[in-house]
Amino acid sequence: MRFGFLPPFCLSLLLSTAFVLQARTAPRTARSATVLSANDAHSILRDGVQVLPKPLGPDTLSILDLQPSGLWAVRSSIDVPASVIGPPSALTLTPDGRIALAASASKPDPADRRIVPDDRISVIDLSGPRPRVIQQVTSAPGTTTLRLTPDRKHVLAANGAGGVLTWFRFDGRHLGARKTIALPVENGFPGGLAITPDGKRALVSLWKGDRVLVLHIDGDDIALAPDPLEIGPGPWNIRLTRDGHYAVMGILGHGEGLPGALSVLDLTASPIREIQRVRVPNAPEGLDISADGRYVAVVSQNGSALAPSSPRYHDRGIVTVFSLRDGHLAQLAQAPGTLWPQGLVFAPDGRTILVQGVMDRALRTLSWNGSALTVVGDTILPGGGANIERQR
């Protein structure tokens, strides 16, 4: 078929029709998943001891975005209590990314120039043009890890300094009635938490108690199960595979500066049992499993929380990536982390890993292609990066 010259009005009509057809048939771009950083502005290290900085600024919660440069950076921040005490998992989001909950295990006492326990949980609405705090409640001293049940009707909180768990009702926007759960180990320091995908069990690691406890969940009821897993030294952050078959847990130690480990737990066994342990640099903190379940990433302090005079001191942490297959970890790559690192997550695309630093107040972006781990660069946080989480 031959086409002759088209008059201008025909050409305009043809282009308009094509545009409409393209708009109707083109796939919609999905809303990017939310990534948050909770930043502690009241804690720094001096000779291996946590002290207040000068000047003293507010703790913050920041929404993070991917920049055209390939770096992740802060888009906006609001004042929200936050803390480096406990695993870097004192932050959680609802699956739709519209509501966040942030806990604070410590706060400043400016009058006495010291850091004291905190017990606040803040609920933040992320749905508007700027985030806003819509509720703040108290839990128990040293409130750290928060986990939302799969049905989004309850929140479980670990309270390290208080030695208890707190079980809240949740209506999707506000925390309601609560129950305090006493634990069988005095001063055991509950830190890491995980809730199985079916919502029927929860795990809690006792850092000082060197064990993992299991709780059974039935609606509003939650109760401790017998037969804890004795494991140490210092079980810490916990992540579960999507199917709930395995847990990957950091073994932190007790401040000796010795190498740490990752432990793989088989949750289908009764009682649960450890099936593998792999060595990582000192004090593994931030821990995540990629969305596709193929990789595990962890950032270790690598002696950065020790006094500089210690022979085990290093200023910078180390990020290690493992493959995960049938409950088995195999190391693939390492790269330098931040200064006194805390939280770590895979970015939503799975090709980027984000890690926070407290002493440098930095967010480090690393690229990951399945075999090579490369530092892309750093951006600034408004406080020490304490907790980080992505929409799941």
From TrEMBL:
What SUPFAM superfamilies does the database record attribute to this sequence? Nitrous oxide reductase, N-terminal domain
Chain ranges passing through the membrane = none
Q: Which domain of life is it from?
A: Bacteria
Key words of the record: Signal
Question: Which residues belong to the signal peptide in this entry?
Answer: 1-23
Would I find Signal among this entry's keywords? Answer: yes
Please name the InterPro entries in this protein's record.
Host-pathogen_enzymatic-act, N2O_reductase_N, WD40/YVTN_repeat-like_dom_sf
PANTHER family according to UniProt: DIHYDRO-HEME D1 DEHYDROGENASE, PROTEIN NIRF
* Record's protein name: YncE family protein
Specify the species. Answer: Nguyenibacter vanlangensis
